C-alpha cells in the first residue's frame, strides 16, 4: 500500500498554448488536470508513494489518465472503470490577465462514484489520506463517498488532510457549501484553507479566530494560506494553548496561479510524512506553491525533492505577518 491516498476526478487537460483563440487553434496539447491529481504528482515527485481512488469511463480519456498515472508512479489499484459514463476533461485557455478553464464533466463517471468503492480498499501501511472540497461537491453520492473514505481511514489510524478548495457553482447555495464543508472538516486532522476561504467558512476575519473555530471542532492542525505572501500554522499544545507559526513565501515571476494550492498541499503532506517541524513544513509548502505558479501547466512544473531543496536554498523570501 502507498504512504498516501487521495480521491478525486482526474481529467484530460487540453491547453491552447499559443496566442490563438480556441476557435483558431489547430493543436491542443494534452496534459492532465484535477486538484487531487496535481497533489498526487507533487507527492510522487518528492519521493513518496501515492494511490488514487476514483471512477473513470471506459473511454480514451480514461485510458490516457491510467497510462499517465502508471508512467508517473501513481498507484491505480483503486480506480474503477465503468461503461455508460464518460471521463471528464477540460479546456484551458491561458491569458496574461485571466486564464479561463472550461469543464466538460457534467454526468461524468467520477461524479457517479458511490461509497461502495471504499469497501475494496486496503488501508494497510497507509499514513495519510488527502481529500478536497471539489470531489465532495460534485454530487451527493461523491460527498457520501468522501465521508465514508474519511471515516474508514480514521478507523485505521490514518491521518486525514483536507483542502476545502471551494467551487460554489457545484453547490445549490453558499450556505449548503459552508455547512457540508465544515461537517467534513470536523472529521479531519489537518485543515488547510486560504485566508479568504477560511473567512467564508468560519464567518470570521482574523486568522487566529478562524484557527480557533476549527481547533474547537477537533481539527488538530489548521494551516492557512496567506495569499502569495506566505502561510501560517496553528495547533494546541498539551495545555490547550494555541501555538502559531508564520513563514513567508518566495519571490518568483508568476505565470499561472492554477495549481498553486495543490502544490502547497503536496508540500504539507510530504513534510508531515517526513516529520518536519511547522516552520520547515510551511517553508516547503510555500516553496512548492511558488514553483508551481512559474509554469503554465497544472502539475508538470511541480518539483522533484532535489529541485525543491535547491529552490529553497537559493530563492529570496518575501515578508509576511498576521
UniProtKB/TrEMBL annotation:
An annotated Gene Ontology molecular function: kinase activity
Entries under Gene3D superfamilies matching the protein: 3.40.1190.20
Span of domain Carbohydrate kinase PfkB: 1-304
InterPro entries with a match to the protein in the record: Carboh/pur_kinase_PfkB_CS (IPR002173), PfkB_Carbo_kinase (IPR050306), PfkB_dom (IPR011611), Ribokinase-like (IPR029056)
One of the Pfam families matching this protein, by short name: PfkB
Origin superkingdom: Bacteria
Keywords per UniProt: ATP-binding, Kinase, Nucleotide-binding, Transferase
Keyword Metal-binding in record: no
PROSITE patterns, per the entry: PFKB_KINASES_2
Family as reported in the entry's similarity comment: Belongs to the carbohydrate kinase PfkB family.
The protein, known as: Sugar kinase
Organism for this UniProt entry: Bifidobacterium eulemuris
Amino acid at each position: 500500500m502507498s504512504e498516501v491516498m487521495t480521491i478525486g476526478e482526474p481529467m484530460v487537460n487540453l491547453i491552447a498554448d499559443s496566442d490563438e483563440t480556441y476557435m483558431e487553434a489547430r493543436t491542443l496539447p494534452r496534459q492532465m488536470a484535477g486538484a487531487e491529481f496535481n497533489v498526487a504528482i507533487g507527492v510522487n515527485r518528492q519521493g513518496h508513494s501515492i494511490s488514487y481512488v476514483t471512477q473513470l469511463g471506459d473511454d480514451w480519456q480514461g485510458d490516457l489518465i491510467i497510462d499517465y498515472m502508471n508512467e508517473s508512479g501513481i498507484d491505480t489499484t483503486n480506480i474503477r472503470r465503468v461503461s455508460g459514463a464518460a471521463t471528464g476533461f477540460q479546456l484551458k485557455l491561458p491569458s496574461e490577465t485571466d486564464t479561463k478553464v472550461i469543464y466538460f464533466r457534467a454526468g461524468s463517471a467520477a461524479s457517479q462514484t458511490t461509497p461502495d468503492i471504499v469497501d475494496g480498499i486496503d488501508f494497510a501501511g497507509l499514513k495519510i489520506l488527502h481529500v478536497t472540497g471539489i470531489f465532495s461537491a460534485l454530487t451527493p453520492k461523491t460527498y457520501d463517498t468522501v465521508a465514508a473514505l474519511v471515516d474508514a481511514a480514521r478507523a485505521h489510524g490514518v491521518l486525514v488532510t483536507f483542502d476545502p478548495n471551494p467551487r460554489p457553482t457545484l453547490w445549490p447555495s453558499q450556505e449548503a457549501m459552508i455547512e457540508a464543508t465544515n461537517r467534513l472538516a470536523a472529521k479531519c486532522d489537518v485543515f488547510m484553507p486560504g485566508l479568504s476561504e477560511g473567512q467564508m467558512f468560519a464567518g470570521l476575519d482574523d486568522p487566529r479566530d478562524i484557527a480557533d473555530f476549527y481547533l474547537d471542532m477537533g481539527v488538530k492542525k489548521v494551516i492557512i494560506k496567506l495569499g502569495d505572501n506566505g502561510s501560517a500554522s496553528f495547533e494546541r499544545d498539551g495545555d490547550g494553548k494555541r501555538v502559531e507559526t508564520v513563514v513567508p513565501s518566495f519571490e518568483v515571476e508568476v505565470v499561472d496561479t492554477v495549481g498553486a494550492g495543490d502544490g502547497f498541499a503536496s508540500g504539507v503532506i510530504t513534510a508531515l510524512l517526513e516529520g518536519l517541524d511547522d516552520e520547515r513544513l510551511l517553508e516547503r509548502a510555500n516553496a512548492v506553491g511558488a514553483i508551481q505558479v512559474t509554469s503554465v501547466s497544472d502539475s508538470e512544473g511541480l518539483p522533484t525533492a532535489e529541485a525543491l531543496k535547491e529552490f529553497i536554498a537559493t530563492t529570496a523570501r518575501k515578508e509576511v505577518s498576521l
